[in-house]
Structures are given as C-alpha cells and as structure tokens.
Amino acid sequence: MAAQVAAGETKSAPSVPPEVKDIWELGADLKEDEDNSPWGWIRWCHTSKAALRKAEENLLSFVKAPMEFGSINVGNFDSSPEEPVKVWTAVINKECSGTPLVLIHGFASGLGLWALNYDGLAESKRPIYAFDMPGFGQSSRPTFNSDPSIAEEQFVMYMEAWRSKLGLEKMIILGHSMGAFLVFSYALKYPHRVAHMILADPWGFSEKPRDLSELAHIPTTHRVIVKVLDSLPLNPLWTVRLMGPMGAELIKRVRMDLISNFVHILKDAPSKVANYIFHCNVQKPPTGETAYHSMMSTFGWAKNPLCRRLTLLDPEIPMTLMYGSRSWVDHYAGEKIQASRPSSYVKYHVIVAGHHIYADTVNAFNSIVLDACEIEQKEQEVVKLK
C-alpha cells in the first residue's frame, strides 16, 4: 500500500482538469490531535484522529494495489459555516482512463472496510475511489438537519460537491446498505452523473412492516436488536461509547460475522478490524450517526423509503442489485425494482451471504461489480462508434 504524504505536503491529484489539481491535502499534523495532558488517560472513550488513521493503516496493510490518500476540501456550507468540509478519500489506478468506480460505505463504517475488495476491483484498470462519508470516519463532522428529508439532501449535497471538486464527469457508483440508499438518492437528483448504479444489500427501500414477526427471513436475534434500538431515543451506537475502553472488545464479540472474513489474510484480524470500527464510531461529534437516526423509522427501515420514489428514477440509468440471502434486508425488493423497470437495464443477484455481502463473498461480489463495469465500458465503446 502506498505511503501517505507527509503532513502539510501537497499531494498530486488524480488525472483531472487543471483547475482541480493540488486539491489533495492531509491538513494539520495529526499528532496535535493526541491528548497529552495529565488527564488524557482517564478519557472514557480514548480515541483521536491519529488513532483512527493508524487503525485504518493496520486494516489496509495487506492491500497490494497502490493507494493514495488525502482530504478533499469540498467547501463551506450552512451546516459548517466556520470550517470547510473535508472528505477523506482513497484512490487506486489514478492514472488509468475509463469511467471511475466510486465506493460508498454503509452506516457505522468507512473506506477501510472495503479492504478485501480493493485488489480484485483494481483489475478493472479504471480509477477507483472510496471515501468516508461526511459525518463518519476521518471526514469532517458537519451538523445535519433533524428533518430526515433535509438530512438526506445534505448527504447528497456533499457527494456532489466531492464529485465536482475532483472533476469526475460520470461515475459508476456503488453503495452498500445506507450507502446504497444515498447512491439512489444521488441518482434521483444527478442522473446525468451516474453511468451505472450498483446497490449492495440496500437499506431503506421497502416500507416498514406493521409486525416484524411477519418477516421470517430476519433471524430472531436481529428482530430483538431492532426492537431494543427502536425503543430507546438514542443514537444506534450509544452502547459502544457507553462501554468506553471496552468498546472495541464489544465490537469484537458481536461483529464476528464481519470480522471472521479477514482472519485468513490479516494477522490479528479480530483486534485490527474491531479497533478500526471502534475508532470510526467514537470520534466526536457523531453527526453522521445522528443523521442516520433521524432518517430511520427503525434500525432497518427508512422514514422516507425508496420504494415511494422508484418511478422518479431516470429509466436510462443501468442498475445492478445485490442481496445477501442471509441478510436482514428484504431481498424481494430487488424483484419489485426489476419488475417496475421493464424497459431499463436491471441485473438482480441474490448471493449466499449476510448483510456484509462485500466481505462475506468477496470473489462473487467483485465479479458482479466488474461485470457492471464491463457493461458500462461496452456502452461507451458503442457511443464512440456512432
């Protein structure tokens, strides 16, 4: 994995128009973020930006594809009037041509959790970008509106500002879970920027059922967790912060479904993956988490589900849908999407996997993504021949 540039040093940008050169920056020295005061050791959630950066480096240590990292300054907004919003971004194959593939992570995540996919996707020989959504990971933590529709619009606004700053004309855009929800929302507003939309186990499509017990495909333990989270007026990850120094250990115990996928390739995977998730989600303030809480009806459903807006989506946008057969997400929604777009390209897959489909079945997941990239490439070739 390529080393990051030193603090304060300007980093070369991907192949984009001259006016957006030199937009990659690391900002202030992260050592300044450490709490070196005599009382620093008693902080309940001991974390820092430097600790998160180190956790990301540890998680990505096995990735062979050269990666470059930096913060993209996307400007000042009403939600962050005093400081510009900066989006922590990684890029692979920056010198390659072709429509870039952009990866949008899900809730409580960051670009580090795509670690198992980077090398396989790099074979596409096209630029691959991933970033921490504002409010999560190493990106800025702007304030989001408590109105769910406005909060959703803010996420989309930051996505478009990021695209614009990098000068990406069109994107093959892939989202997982909440990220897929935001990809769909982005495509509604900026259809001309989407060359192909890939939704992996998308959150927030279906209407919330009246009785969760009717959903036989959701394990009983998941239904219990949903009911507990729904009954408390707290952000979903309050338990991790409540556990303080034991938060990473809690994640290690309850998220082995995800962590176990890294054991074969990453030394001390349980600790490294859990530490990354922990430091991603105890940074202050948890604005992305709060925005998600405002957008959700319960943990598994959105207040403004995508099914209500499906007919508004441009029929020219090709779609690839992936669902995990063991996931709590209703994969029958994919059939509804396909049936509602008879004249559009819609490819629908159900894979033997859980919700973290990108990590549970890496080869199958990457193959489907690369197939979507091939379809987009062939379409571009046809356009050139006309």
TrEMBL record:
Domain of life per record: Eukaryota
Pfam families cross-referenced by the UniProt entry: Abhydrolase_1 (PF00561)
Domain AB hydrolase-1: 100-357
InterPro entries associated with the record: AB_hydrolase_1, AB_hydrolase_fold
Family, as annotated: Belongs to the peptidase S33 family. ABHD4/ABHD5 subfamily.
PANTHER family: PUMMELIG, ISOFORM A, RE40534P-RELATED
UniProt protein name: AB hydrolase-1 domain-containing protein
Organism whose genome encodes this protein: Orchesella dallaii
